Amino acid sequence: MENENTYKSPHEAQHKSHRAPWLRAAVLGVNDGIVSTSSLMLGVLAASANKEAILVAGLAGLVAGAISMGVGEYVSVSSQKDSEKADIEIERLSIKSNPNAELAELASIYEKRGVERQLAIQVATQLHAHDAVGAHARDELDINQDALANPAQAALASTVAFSLGAAVPIVAALLSNETDGVYLIIGFSIIALAASGSVGAYLGGGKKRKAALRVLIGGSAAMAITYVIGLLIGQVL
Question: How far apart are alpha carbons 23 and 229 in whole angstroms?
């Protein structure tokens, strides 16, 4: 039997961190779609048992939420990308006007990471000759020029994910009758939250049980609070 701790070469090991930009947007979109739409529908259901009103609220929540998530993600990631490009440009101008100082700074970075001084200078010199801006962006600013933030990718992932999440309580409402609507919406939403948390953890290399529990607690609290508020409003009206 193969030992679980058997060393894997870099070609065999499957890293997960490169998925972070779109994975964050997708997981956030799914969870937000489930929680916000189900909470909205439960609030309406608690105030009024009218199935048509519940479905209208759910569809309105899906459309408005998906558009809001997509636009918001695009704007925020665009700001991040603009900031990254501005930092790279500052570094480019600094290298142009103070090449020796920037070379010494890069060598110092490698030396602080444990590279011997002479080797650090040699490495910094070679990287400066090859791509000085790229080296400083990567090792000084922690920015990869070839993998800058992608606003369109994040916006699309967020919009699609929110729509999928919001569809869960809507489907539950469509399958419900006058007596079991609240149970189906809550049940479908809880199962979907647990699944999204587990899938997100799997794709990101995290712990599935912990991730599922995390989104379950937050989502369940939101649905419970909204339902209680709907009951109180329904009594007043």
Answer: 33
* Domain boundaries, position 171: 20-236
Structural domain count, the chain: 1
15 found inside a domain = no
Distance CA 74, CA 165 (A): 19
pTM: 0.72
Would you say residue 144 lies in a domain? Answer: yes
Can you read off the two tokens belonging to residue 34? Answer: 């489930």
For 115-145, write each residue's pLDDT tens digit.
899 998 999 999 888 888 888 888 888 888 7
The number of beta carbons lying within 10 Å of the beta carbon of residue 162 is: 30
**Structural domain contains residue 5:** no
Which amino acid type is present at position 73?
Answer: E
Exposure string (b/e) for 189-223, b if CB count within 10 Å is 16 or more?
A: bbebbbbbbbbbbeebeeeeeebbebbbeebeebb
Alpha helices in 98-150 (DSSP H): 99-112, 117-139
172 within some domain = yes
DSSP for 158-183 reads HHHHHHHHHHHHHHHHHH--TTTHHH
Cβ atoms of 117 and 163 within 8 Å: the answer is: no
